[in-house]
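Narrative summary of target 7.
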Amino acid sequence: MSTHHTSSDITTTNPAGTPERFNDPGIPEHRSRMADRDPKAAKRAERQVVVLFVISILGTIGMLVAYFAIQPDGTTAGTRNSNLALGLGLFLSLMGIGLAAVHWAKTLMSDHERSEERHDQRSPDEVRVAAVTALKDGAEDSGIARRGVLKGAVVTALGLFPLTIAVPLIGSVGNDWDVSKFRHTMWKKGTRLATDPAGRPIKASDVTIGSVVHVVPDAPEEERRTHHWITEKAKSVVLIVRLDPADLKEAEDRKDWSYNGIVAYSKICTHVGCPVALYEQQTHHLLCPCHQSTFDVADGAKVVFGPAKRPLPQLPITVDDEGYLIAQDDFNEPVGPSYWERLK
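Modeled conformation, tokenized:
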């Protein structure tokens, strides 16, 4: 159904194509608010808005204090506490501004509905002057000019909030930006493969054809509790699969990277870094649940579907004298998605 507006009526076209005309109902009758009728209510609403802006100010100050006073100390608990303090301060800063703006608009600013007839995009000069006048009248109607405390609160809150972004950004300039760290993981020659999260070293005989095991570098329990090991683990998680050796399609330079059909690949998707963990035994396909990138484990973990552009990096493995699976070396390329200065 099409509708055509005029200044006094509305014309519609019904399904039969016959025009129908009825009177424009106009703008509904305005309902005044408590703050419009009672000066005390208006003053109370103003104080509430000021309090919300003050909460924002305190949140910004708290976030800046937390940034300098609660520094991560290298432990998981220290990092958690620092992030919690920063997040809480930023939350209060943003929440205060948002709630104050909404409450101000709903209780103090003009809520009269107005309508104007459509006209050319470029209005006549006298109309433009009238529009500027209307904007000034609107500012006057909002009460910002005569509410000094409210004006001070909003200016302070909006002026301080950018510091929550600028200070951490400036503070990060001196941080360690050595991207070569992305090229290496905890895997090295002789490191045993251990189940995740139990940390139990795994033997080749424990892995049956068709089974999938999530593994990490073997380390003492005390080390696995450290913040450094936990953060490095994020790059080092590996998924091992055992196939029938006859099903493997291995490049000539990688024929010794597997052991009796057992292959090991990075668990980090090369698209955006999600964990690749869904294995389809019949097709030998690994699926990333985030964006459905699919890799063929039997053929070098090459991409067979989805947005990923590179195969999963392979970890060369073998066994030690006791039959435990061990790494021959680190990955031959960086794991995960692309980043600056990556050569391949």
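Helices lie at 34-37, 39-69, 76-107, 125-142, 148-160, 163-171, 221-224, 227-236.
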